[in-house]
């Protein structure tokens, strides 16, 4: 089993190289000029020619790709023409913020989905189940940006409990606890908006799995033997009903990192999602390619994590 997992892990490398070739070529064929932000009105033609020569944009795209791969292996991901700084420094400064947002949203979504899904499945048909299903249907139908705007209006402007945008620069003299509290305070609304939209699917999957598992023969046998109801749910029903949820955990990680673009844009959150939008607008090719590689790597790792979790949860499953 672990040999197959290790083989799958090393197979990520050629997949990532193929993906990097595709996104690099597509980025070069995008309309526009990434040097527009460097050319100042009134600049003489010789200075413009020097900028274009340094950017080696006249070389074929495959030559630039090979040069970029060689530089990447040395830790040099290129220069952002818009921000005029190394790409690794620019992305590294924002990637941590996106990880904070994705982690907080992921944990919060499972804290919402698991107890509600268990309750709705165990007491299906009750008033509480009907309320959960009604709210879940609303969460399914509303796009994440609508949920975010409602939370901003309610908790940001009406109740004034949380900040509605940005992430402030914290002074170095601030304590670790104060710094962590400040970060979580600014993460509350973006993470909650993300979690409310993402938890709807897991609630429905968990509820359906529990309702189906309650009717299985092994559950009826356990009850006929006098096994306590709490143990029946804990050892038999919930373990099997949670398979669809646990098997999608890796994909949830990928989804939270990739879908953070919308949340970061609404809340002006300084993460890689907002950087990706601004780089597309300015045709900053070197930043676009690196960010797409990060999203692609997250998707590949998320797929592997889901397979590993499914194998651990159900030893009957084998991956190839």
From TrEMBL:
The lineage of its organism: Bacteria, Bacillati, Bacillota, Bacilli, Lactobacillales. Gene3D superfamilies: MetI-like. It comes from Trichococcus pasteurii. It is found in: Cell membrane. Pfam families: BPD_transp_1. GO terms for cellular component: plasma membrane. Keywords: Cell membrane, Membrane, Transmembrane, Transmembrane helix, Transport. It is a multi-pass membrane protein. Belongs to the binding-protein-dependent transport system permease family. This is ABC transmembrane type-1 domain-containing protein. SUPFAM superfamilies: MetI-like. The chain crosses the membrane at residues 99-119, 131-156, 176-198, 248-267, 287-313.
